[in-house]
Amino acid sequence: MGRGETQNQSGKAWFGFADAHLVYDNPEKVTLLSHRNAEDRKLDVAMFELADRVLALIYVERDMNIRVISFRVASRQERRAHEKARAEK
């Protein structure tokens, strides 16, 4: 399994950093902001319809570049924040 890939329950990789655009480009995503390690980070949370999963993308924007920190299945807290923000729209 390569760097940045996540396993499904059978142990096979099913998405990785190269798939982060599924969340980043999602018009239905919810973006939360956080400050950690002296940098402003963004947390995008979106439903990935094909796998029926809510995914979380954590990244920083530097100049014209985006550095992915984490791309994974959203935590329970992140899913709740996503649901709440979607209900408020």
- Gyration radius, rounded: 13 Å
Query: How would you describe the shape?
Result: globular
Protein structure class: alpha+beta
Overall helicity: 10-25%
What strand line-up does the widest sheet have? 3-4-5-6
Q: CA-to-CA gap between the ends? A: 38 Å
- Which blocks of ≥5 consecutive residues have pLDDT under 50? 7-13
How many runs of DSSP E, i.e. beta strands?
6
Total of domains: 1
Strand content: over 45%
Order of helices and strands: EEHEEEEH
Total helical elements: 2
Biggest beta sheet summary: 4 strands, antiparallel
Tell me what the structure shows:
The chain is 19% helix and 46% strand. The protein has 89 residues and is of the alpha+beta class. The protein has one domain. A 4-stranded antiparallel β-sheet has the order 3-4-5-6. A two-stranded antiparallel ribbon has the order 1-2. β3 and β4 (39-48) form a beta hairpin. It is globular, with a radius of gyration of 13 Å. The chain starts with 5 loop residues before the first strand and ends with a helix.
